């Protein structure tokens, strides 16, 4: 991406291209409140041929790190990891944002503490990394079916690991992960 202006003191991560080859989805630290020193990411979209940060899609929870790893969905929605804090504990839920700034559809629970969503090429399975119940000393690579915006019962593929960044094979037959 070529930008004519470099914006100081801003961060962008996790770019994913939309199916049209021109729309890009990413996590960006806007809107930002510099007086609180909060750097929380929200999900944004834009185009490579127009304005890059054109549409704010999500409202992140303050002081959590925010909304990260956006994955565009068929039909215009976006799936991502949404971080929150409750009872003094931080956790992640995987959510679907059906349209900009709408209430997200929550797919996983705070107790599951799942993130790093990877949607299969056909859109019917979701791979994710879950921490819940591990005492934070390890993770699980889990896969669940996804039908009509509803997540099926997750199946553990690899247990008790330091797994990260699952990615599906182009034909959806296998997963590769760290």
Structural description of this entry:
Helices cover 0% and strands 45% of the residues. Strands 9, 10, 11, 12 and 13 form a 5-stranded antiparallel beta sheet that branches. Strands 1-2-3-4 form a 4-stranded antiparallel beta sheet, with no helix packed on it. The two termini are 27 Å apart. The chain has strands at residues 12-17, 23-28, 42-47, 55-56, 67-72, 78-86, 89-97, 105-106, 114-119, 125-130, 139-147, 150-151, 155-161, 167-168, 175-176. It is globular. It has 178 residues and is mostly beta strands.
Can you lay out the helices and strands and say which pair or pack?
Layout: E1 12-17, E2 23-28, E3 42-47, E4 55-56, E5 67-72, E6 78-86, E7 89-97, E8 105-106, E9 114-119, E10 125-130, E11 139-147, E12 150-151, E13 155-161, E14 167-168, E15 175-176
Antiparallel strand pairs: 1-2, 2-3, 3-4, 5-6, 6-7, 7-8, 9-10, 10-11, 11-12, 11-13, 14-15
Report mean pLDDT, rounded to a whole number. Answer: 90
Helicity range: under 10%
- How many β-strand stretches? 15
The coarse overall form would be globular
Detail the poorly predicted runs. Answer: none
Sheet with the most strands, sense and barrel status: 5 strands, antiparallel
Rg over CA atoms, rounded to whole Å, is 16 Å
User: Hey, roughly how much beta strand do the residues contain?
Assistant: 35-45%
Structural class: mainly beta
Distance between the termini: 27 Å
Number of helices: 0
């Amino acid at each position: 991406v070529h930008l004519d202006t470099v914006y100081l003191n801003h961060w962008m991560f996790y770019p994913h291209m939309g199916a049209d080859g021109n729309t890009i989805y990413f996590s960006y630290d806007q809107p930002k409140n510099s007086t609180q020193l909060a750097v929380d990411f929200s999900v944004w979209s834009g185009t490579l041929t127009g304005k890059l940060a054109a549409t704010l899609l999500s409202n992140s929870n303050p002081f959590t790190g925010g909304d990260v790893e956006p994955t565009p969905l068929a039909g215009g929605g976006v799936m991502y990891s949404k971080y929150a804090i409750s009872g003094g504990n931080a956790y992640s839920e995987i959510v679907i944002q059906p349209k900009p700034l709408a209430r997200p559809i929550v797919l996983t629970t705070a107790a599951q503490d799942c993130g790093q969503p990877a949607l299969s090429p056909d859109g019917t399975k979701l791979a994710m990394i879950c921490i819940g119940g591990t005492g934070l000393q390890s993770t699980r690579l889990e896969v669940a079916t996804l039908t009509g915006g509803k997540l099926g019962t997750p199946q553990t593929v690899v247990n008790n690991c330091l797994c990260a960044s699952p990615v599906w094979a182009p034909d959806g037959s296998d997963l590769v992960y760290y």
